[in-house]
Amino acid sequence: MTPTTPATAFARLMEGNGRWVSGKLQHPDRDPDRRQLVTQHQEPFGAVLSCIDSRVPPELLFDTGLGDLYVMRTGAQTVDPVVTGSVEYGPMTSGTPLIVVLGHQRCGAVKAAYQSLRDGKPLPGNLQAIVTSLRPAYEQAVREGGADPVEAMARAQAKLTATALRSNADLAPLVRKDSLAVVGAYYSLDTGKVEVLVGAPF
Question: Which domains can be identified in the chain, with CATH numbers?
Answer without folding.
Answer: 6-198 (3.40.1050.10)
